Amino acid sequence: MIDIVLSDLEKNKFINDQFYSESKAKSMIQRGNSINKIRNYLIRKGIHDEFIKDTVDRIKEDNSDQDFFSAIKICKKKTNWTS
Q1: Calpha distance 76→54 (Å, rounded)
Q2: CB under 8 Å to 16, separation ≥6 — which residues?
Q3: Which residues contact 20 (CB under 8 A, 6 or more apart)?
Q4: Which of 17, 20, 55, 68 has the greatest count of CB atoms below 10 A from its CB?
Q5: How far is Cα 33 from Cα 11, in angstroms, rounded to an integer?
Q6: What spatial distance separates the first Cα and last Cα of the chain, rounded to whole Å?
Q7: Residues near 32 by Cβ (< 8 Å), separated by ≥ 6?
Q8: How far apart are CA 42 and CA 1, in angstroms?
Q9: What residues have CB less than 8 Å from 21, skipping those under 6 apart?
Protein backbone atom coordinates (compact mmCIF):
# COMPACT_ATOMS: atom_id res chain seq x y z
CA MET A 1 0.00 0.00 0.00
CA ILE A 2 2.84 2.41 0.86
CA ASP A 3 4.53 1.74 -2.47
CA ILE A 4 1.31 2.58 -4.32
CA VAL A 5 0.92 5.85 -2.44
CA LEU A 6 4.56 6.81 -3.03
CA SER A 7 4.28 5.95 -6.71
CA ASP A 8 1.16 8.07 -7.03
CA LEU A 9 2.83 11.00 -5.26
CA GLU A 10 5.86 10.77 -7.54
CA LYS A 11 3.66 10.56 -10.63
CA ASN A 12 1.80 13.69 -9.59
CA LYS A 13 5.10 15.49 -8.77
CA PHE A 14 4.40 15.80 -5.07
CA ILE A 15 7.63 13.91 -4.47
CA ASN A 16 10.20 15.05 -6.99
CA ASP A 17 13.76 15.99 -6.00
CA GLN A 18 14.43 17.88 -9.22
CA PHE A 19 11.29 19.99 -8.87
CA TYR A 20 12.01 20.62 -5.19
CA SER A 21 15.62 21.57 -5.93
CA GLU A 22 14.61 24.09 -8.60
CA SER A 23 11.71 25.62 -6.70
CA LYS A 24 13.63 25.93 -3.42
CA ALA A 25 16.59 27.49 -5.25
CA LYS A 26 14.30 30.08 -6.88
CA SER A 27 12.88 30.94 -3.48
CA MET A 28 16.33 31.28 -1.96
CA ILE A 29 17.52 33.43 -4.88
CA GLN A 30 14.65 35.83 -4.28
CA ARG A 31 15.80 36.13 -0.65
CA GLY A 32 19.33 36.93 -1.82
CA ASN A 33 21.07 33.72 -0.76
CA SER A 34 24.42 32.83 -2.29
CA ILE A 35 24.95 29.87 -4.57
CA ASN A 36 26.97 28.08 -1.87
CA LYS A 37 24.20 28.54 0.67
CA ILE A 38 21.68 27.12 -1.80
CA ARG A 39 23.96 24.18 -2.64
CA ASN A 40 24.59 23.39 1.04
CA TYR A 41 20.90 23.59 1.87
CA LEU A 42 20.02 21.11 -0.89
CA ILE A 43 22.81 18.76 0.21
CA ARG A 44 21.52 18.80 3.80
CA LYS A 45 18.04 17.97 2.50
CA GLY A 46 19.43 14.86 0.79
CA ILE A 47 18.84 15.97 -2.79
CA HIS A 48 20.75 13.87 -5.34
CA ASP A 49 24.03 15.46 -6.53
CA GLU A 50 22.91 15.41 -10.16
CA PHE A 51 19.86 17.57 -9.41
CA ILE A 52 21.94 19.97 -7.30
CA LYS A 53 24.49 20.36 -10.10
CA ASP A 54 21.73 21.04 -12.65
CA THR A 55 20.10 23.57 -10.37
CA VAL A 56 23.36 25.39 -9.60
CA ASP A 57 24.29 25.44 -13.30
CA ARG A 58 20.89 26.92 -14.13
CA ILE A 59 21.32 29.59 -11.43
CA LYS A 60 24.71 30.53 -12.86
CA GLU A 61 23.22 30.83 -16.35
CA ASP A 62 20.17 32.85 -15.30
CA ASN A 63 21.67 34.85 -12.41
CA SER A 64 25.36 35.18 -13.15
CA ASP A 65 25.83 37.76 -10.37
CA GLN A 66 23.98 35.89 -7.62
CA ASP A 67 26.94 35.78 -5.26
CA PHE A 68 27.55 39.51 -5.83
CA PHE A 69 23.94 40.34 -4.93
CA SER A 70 24.19 38.11 -1.88
CA ALA A 71 27.33 39.93 -0.75
CA ILE A 72 25.59 43.30 -1.13
CA LYS A 73 22.70 42.03 0.99
CA ILE A 74 25.09 40.94 3.74
CA CYS A 75 26.88 44.32 3.65
CA LYS A 76 23.56 46.15 3.97
CA LYS A 77 22.66 44.02 6.98
CA LYS A 78 26.00 44.75 8.64
CA THR A 79 25.60 48.47 7.97
CA ASN A 80 22.20 48.41 9.65
CA TRP A 81 23.68 46.60 12.67
CA THR A 82 26.25 49.32 13.30
CA SER A 83 23.81 52.20 12.84
Answers
A1: 30
A2: 10
A3: 45, 47
A4: 55
A5: 31
A6: 59
A7: 69, 70, 73
A8: 29
A9: 42, 47, 51, 52, 54, 55
